[in-house]
Amino acid sequence: MECIGSESDSCEGKNLNNTEENCTKDESDKLTEPSECKIYKKDIVENIDDTNSLSNATDSEETIDMKVIYNKKKYDVSTKLNTTISDFKKQLQGLLGVPDSMQKLMYKGLLQDNQTISSSGIIKGSKIMLVGSTLNDVLAVSSVSKQDVVEMEKASTSKEPLCKQKIHRKVLDKGIPEDAMPGIRNLKEGLPSTPLSGMLNKHGGKVRLTFKLESDQLWLGTKERTEKLPMGSIKSVMSEPIEDHEEYHILGLQLGPTEASRYWIYWVPAQFVDAIKDAVLGKWQYF
Length: 287
Hints:
single chain, alpha+beta, Ubiquitin-like (UB roll), 3 domains, 13 strands, 26% helix, elongated, Ubiquitin-like domain-containing protein, Ubiquitin-like_domsf, cadherin binding
């Protein structure tokens, strides 16, 4: 900003007959008069930019309240506008116990991890739908009794083949399911284009495996429900041929840290076992 005095501020141009005293007096009288000020456009723009930057920084730090709907229940949640959806999922994991890798958040469509609360259009009072399963929900599909846990602990310290252990004999003694897919020993094949079906869980219930490689998920389907498991939530995969029926395997998905966290599947066609392990552990094969 530049201030320029008025033309009358100077004695220059006055009559030469004016005395120095009169000139000094005139100048003194005009000190109280307002000066003409010029404010350059550049100064205005810079001031506006500074104000906007301060406003944006304040907005990004603003905390808003919203509602998250999960299993037909509403939860009041507060978070900052600049929080990413990925970090927000971690916040919900601590609140609801649903692993962030098993969450899907819906608000006017599926929210992406790299979005922020602000960029996704979420505002104060918004309702966000959470779809996901806790580890306990997944294990409930193949619930384990105290007796089963005892038998598993005994089996883990035994070198006895899986197919001869009591906990597995309960299912195997029923024989090969009528709708089991054909098994072929000593052969390795890629995953079929259709789900693997005709298998059983530890309760003798039907199990279907659907591999969604494009979304890195394994869909574990039973008559009652379908659980969509991120591949990363499966710690390991173990398998063993079934004695006298080596064209089929017993397969265990390690979903947690203990023996009781294994989800057992019976009568898995032998030719697909390696492809299943590769898909779950990250070595995808496309055939």
